Each structure stands twice: as structure tokens, then as C-alpha cells.
Amino acid sequence: MTHFRKLAAAAAGVAAALASSGAFAAGFQLNEQSIVGMGRSYAGEGIMGDDVSAAWYNPAGLTLLPGTQIQVGGMDVELDLEYKGKDGGSENGRKRSSPILHQMMSRQFSDRLWGGLAFVMPYGLSTSYGADWAQNQRGYDARLLAVTINPSLAWKLTDKVSVGAGFQAQHIDATVSMKKNVMGYGAYSRLEADDWGFGWNVGAMWEPTETLRFGFGYRSQMNHNAHGHVKLTADSASQSGIQNLMKAASANSAIMSQLKALAAQNGISSSALMSIASSGSMTLPGGANMKSPANANFTVVWKYSPKLRLSSTIRWTDWSSFDRLIITAGNLPHSSTDIPMKWRDTWFVSLGYDLDITPKWTIRGGVAYDRSPIKDARYRTAIIPDANRGWLSLGASYRLNDRWQFDLAAMHVHAFGNRDLYSDYTSSGEKVGHFKSLNSYLLGAGFVYRF
């Protein structure tokens, strides 16, 4: 009986550790919903009027877009997550290339009313380390995909003031793999879960002069209650021990009955119990509860000259709302699956420019600073090895004619400051290594078509 309780505790430990990995963490937020915006590090997002990204960043900016316009774009993300352990081991969490896609549409209904529709991927994650690397107990493989549908309306109240509002429906799909050793049992775990969440967004834009424009946007918090399953696979040594336990139980019907009763109390069916004994794996119903943080942005665009525009964005994100993450695995003890995250609110600041070098060509560039939500390095995980980040970007647009516009952009994001990794988030956790580099390289292309 004691051995099976250890097995149940191991399953709970695996699920709990998944929570600390930040599998659903909006901390790995994606700003890349516009190729044009990417070229200037998203300075002035939503109120520039040179693409359809207002449908996502600030619905009030839709009033800058005449007629009907469609925007399609995508970018490829390459990661360099070089880790060096104190034991001399090394790893790199880069995975296969990760595309980020978006599609948006705007429609002018009258001189005062506009509509917008955005299909975007606002959160994403794709990291992978060797399954047997030294820190696999804090995660070695993860994938997160969030797709959001955001319809909106905008009203031009006066020639200087516009407002907008929208509704957002977001689907998240996440997978996380890790290894955990609990009370002598080693197990590989894989969590798969998904959910729909709903929220809203609003925006406003003010143009006091013909050369100056201000914008404000707010996106609400969304609550996710993801459902799925946790597949627990014992390593070879643990599987052998479990099989010996089951053999002993099969020789004593009373012990077998007690094992099955204990399994049922923990949400483990008899078939799952038999499965881990025979194949070394079992599947439990699982899920997670978390909050997707609210954010607000303030933007400004200044037309310095007929050919040069300067812009800036300041964005606040309510990461402190992501204080805890609760993971469930069957009916295993709740106390083992309530994990503190201890994140903080963050600020993002960017500066950019757009320069028309010919009637058909525009070039742009930008820089940005993005503060990490991780205020205590003990809460950093290899799956989301976040740190303060600096951005540098360049881009260009080519207008073939009045209908077609083609856009290109490239960006480098470099993390700096504390990049240490600890064995766990408790006060007894020891520093086990650090990330020598945390870099992202992005290259994107897209087009805008105007009817």
C-alpha cells in the first residue's frame, strides 16, 4: 500500500511541476501581429494607418482606413537558448522553427462607422531540451499555441476623436513534457490541455493637429479553465518496481482490492492501474486554471516632416494577476498542485520611425525595452527562461499600386540581466546553472490589399 501511495504522490508531483514550468504562461507573449509594426518595434501600434493592425492593437485606429482592406502576414521565429550547468553540462532549448501568423480585415460602413476583424496568435511557446538533461524535472519540452478571434467596431465621434470596442474569443492548446523523481519513482510526464476564454477590448484616438496623434487601448483579462489529460510514464527502473508490487498484490486479493480502492479515490481507474503495471504508463484527466493578464497601451505618432514619422508605445501588462497556477491530475491532492508564480507587472517601451524614400518605398526601424515578469530568479524555468529584453528591428514596405502593399521586417530580441536557473522555487533551491544567451531572431513578410 505504501508503494502505491508513493506512485500517486509521484503523479501529483509531476503535475505540480508542470505548473511551475509556466506551460500556459502569457509571459511568453507575442507582440508580432503586424509585419509593418514589427519593423518599428511596434511603436505607435494601432494608430499609424499604414496597415490593418488597428483591428488588433486599437480599434479606434480603424477610422484611419478607407474602404475595405485585408492584411495577411507571417513570421518565422528562431531561438537560441544556450544553457550552461554548474556540473559542466550544456543544453540549448531551441526547437524547430515556429511560425506566427495573422490575418486582419477592416471595412468602412459610413463616414462615421468602421468594422474590423482580427485572427491572431498573441501567445506562443516552443522550447525543447534533451529528455535526460540535468534539469528535466523542471521541464524539457513545451508547446503553447493561442489563437484569438477579435471582431470590433469603431466610431468617428468628431474629426479629431475616434473610439472603438471589440470582443475577443481565445483558444489555447498546450503540451508540456518533463521528468520528475518523487520518493524514489522516476516518471516522464506529458500534459495536454486546451480551453476557450472570452474578453473585450476598447480603444480611443485623438488627433489635436494634422501632425500629432495619440492613442489608448485596453484589453481585458481572460480566465482559462483548461481541460485535458496527463500521461504518466514510469522510467525503466520505476516500471520494474511497480511490476513487482503488482505481482505481490496479484497473489493477495485483499491487497489488490485495497490498491484498486486507493486508485479510485485518486481518480485512477482500474484499467489505468493495470496499464502502468503492464506498459509502464497511465493517463489521468488533467487541467489547469489561470488568468490571462489585462494590458493597456499609450501610443503617439508625430509627423515630423512630409516624409518622416516618429512614433512611440508604452504598454503595461498586469502580470501580477498571474500569481498562482493550479494544475489538476485526477483527484490527486490539491495541495500538491497549487503553485505560486510570483510574477510582477511589466512595462514595454518602444521608439520607431518611418521614412518615405520614394513614393513607392518606405523604410522603418525601431528599438524597444521589455521588462521580464520574473522578479525572483528562483521562479524562472527552462521552458520559459525569461529575462529583461532589448529589441532592434528594421523593415520596409513597397506599394505596387493603390491596391497592393508588400511588407518585410526583421527583428533581434536579446535578453540581458539575471539569467540564472535554480533547482526549484523554494528557499532551499540551489543555483544549478545559467543561460549564457537568450536570443530570438524573427523574419516576417506580408501584404495589404485595398479594395
Automatic annotation (TrEMBL):
Predominant localisation class: membrane
Keyword annotations of the record: Cell outer membrane, Membrane, Signal, Transmembrane, Transmembrane beta strand
Cited InterPro entries: OMPP1/FadL/TodX (IPR005017)
Pfam families named in the record: Toluene_X
Membrane topology term: Multi-pass membrane protein
Signal peptide, first to last residue: 1-25
Cell compartment(s), UniProt: Cell outer membrane
Entry-linked Gene3D superfamilies: Outer membrane protein transport protein (OMPP1/FadL/TodX)
Record keyword RNA-binding present: no
Family annotation (PANTHER family): OUTER MEMBRANE PROTEIN NMB0088-RELATED
Family of this protein: Belongs to the OmpP1/FadL family.
Protein name in UniProt: Outer membrane protein transport protein
Native source species: Mesosutterella porci
